[in-house]
Amino acid sequence: xxxxxxxxxxxxxxxxxxxxxxLISKVKMPxxxxxxxxxxxxxxxxLSLLSExxxxxxxxxxxxxxxxCAFGLMLGTELIWTQIRSYGCALILTTLSQSLGxxxxxxxxxxxxxxxxxxxx
Length: 121
Known about the structure:
5 helices
């Protein structure tokens, strides 16, 4: 496919994702949720506006790395540190228990799968 057309398709998806982010933020939800939903709907496993051909180009991979940094900052600006501080120990305990619990369950599942296969890879 023509490179100009690929870039235009990517720009259209980026614009639609930004609009979805604004729409979602109007209902008091994080804008990043709109971006994620748009990505799922418009990407290669949805409407395929972004095809595998676009996703495999070098310029796309480099751009995505930069955008991941930008979205990380976007998430950071939506955190309200005074609210997080007010949650205190409950937030820390919940985060640790969910993280460690998930790790334990996934590790046990992999150990069981490995034992079930006789330890062969």
